[in-house]
Amino acid sequence: MNITEEIIKEKIILYLKKYGISEKSRILVAFSGGPDSSALLWILNDLSFSFGYSLEAVYINHGIRSPLDMQLETEKIKNISELIDLKINIITIEQGLIAEEAGLTGRSIEEIAREYRYSILEDEKKRLGATHIAMGHTLDDQSETLIMRFFQGSGIHGLTGIPEKRKEIIRPLLVFEKKDLTEYINIKNIPYVIDKTNFETLYLRNKIRLNLIPVISEIFPGFQKSLGQFSYKMDLLRPVIDEYAGPLNVKINKFGEPYFLLKDYMKVSDFRKLETLYKSWNIWENRPFDRLPFKFLRNALGNRISNNSKTALQASLFKLVREKEHLIWKRVVVVSSEKSYLKVMTKGTNKIYSGLLINLDENAIESKDSIWLDKDSVKEPLLVRNKFDGDTISLAEGVKPLKKLYQDWGIPAGDRWKIPVLEDRSGIIAVLGKPFGYSNRIALKYKNCSSGNTKLFIRAHYMEKMSEQSE
């Protein structure tokens, strides 16, 4: 065993012990096939025999690169899975979906791809019953992230960089430079794939890695370790800020919406106001997207919230509103030229609109017309609504836009509002197409619920013919 392999394994063993990884742990590796995640997969697989944890991996095709490139890469991933004798689940996002969403929202492909990736990893973690998600971030990734956040005007929390552990996500490689891991996999003859887009300046991180890092490295040799120390110092500062200038107390109502006291908010400093807005947004499970831009939040700082204004902040998909003595985040119900509805489901018969009924029952007999959900997996409230722009559902074949699903079914655009969509606080559960002659489609994570738990049977049916319905 050479010195590089000794040091890498020794540090990862210390990391796993530090965070209590044991025979009770079940680790899901986020595997891209590249050098870093390949090193992580091989090392964790080797150490699983001594630690006793179980191990699986997931590979995500983001549908960004060409189908031919992805087909070739997927075949390599399958070969790696056979070679290491470890299951690697391959999940494919529909080709072009992320790019299309980026074009519609004006956000970057990188940002949207990250949201999809973390959402899929969380779904896979729940499906497998994993205790941890292992990611292959390195010291190089940490440096790139800190540089990117600095020039984007990040706050103190952002300048702590990538944490070595956050909730169930572990990053055992964060102390290593890529060159160390490259040396390791070359010596061990570990196979990996190369993403050609890593050498193109199409994305921000690539521009930093290819254009900016070489210049910084020439001026400040060893800058990566210095930035690592900077990140550590910022992390030491974070609890001090939380104690003396942290966010206000934020609560969640029965609809899953975060709220906090308006009078307390108006008394504190702008920094605490900002911390409160960020905290309340981040704990909102039904938020439309992950991050809020600072330039948007500035409108709620100082004394800019008028005593006469019910709405403090307004965007196309969400708003921050005043309700009595509180400020509360709310989703905006999109009303278009098509007919629209959004209702909270209750047990028994729910009238959705004229002619359409949905029955919700724990004691019904399962039939081909109904779907069933594990009651414990539903994050109430359970809503039924029409389709919104940008809606997607995660199916076994990948993440599918409802627009595309309805197109495949051949539903005229003017009738698509009639198809009921079930949603809880974690997102879309199902699309109930059965009353219209189509199949019911259930989100992937709800198809793997325990059959021993209490079942919620849901059946949608028409009292009249479709052509005869009116509001």
What does it look like?
This protein is an alpha+beta fold and 471 residues long. The chain has three domains: 3-236, Rossmann fold, CATH 3.40.50.620; 251-331; 342-468, no CATH class. The chain contains 13 helices and 22 strands. It has helices at residues 3-18, 35-51, 67-84, 97-105, 109-128, 139-151, 178-188, 204-219, 223-245, 262-267, 270-282, 294-297, 402-409; strands spanning 26-30, 54-61, 88-92, 132-134, 165-166, 169-170, 251-252, 258-261, 311-314, 318-323, 326-331, 342-344, 348-353, 356-361, 371-374, 383-385, 392-395, 398-401, 421-424, 427-431, 441-442, 455-462. The longest helix has 23 residues, at 223-245.
User: pLDDT average, as an integer?
Assistant: 83
Major sheet details: 6 strands, mixed
Structural class: alpha+beta
User: Could you list the spans in which at least 5 consecutive residues all have pLDDT below 50?
Assistant: 334-338, 464-471
Measured as a percent range, the helix fraction is 25-40%
Strand arrangement, largest sheet? 3-2-1-4-6-5
CATH topology of the largest domain: Rossmann fold
User: Shape from CA axes?
Assistant: globular
Write the CATH architecture name of the largest domain. 3-Layer(aba) Sandwich
Please tell me the total number of domains: 3
Distance between the termini: 74 Å
Radius of gyration, rounded? 25 Å
The overall strand count is 22
Going by CATH, what is the homologous superfamily of the largest domain?
A: HUPs
Strand content: 15-25%
Helix tally equals: 13
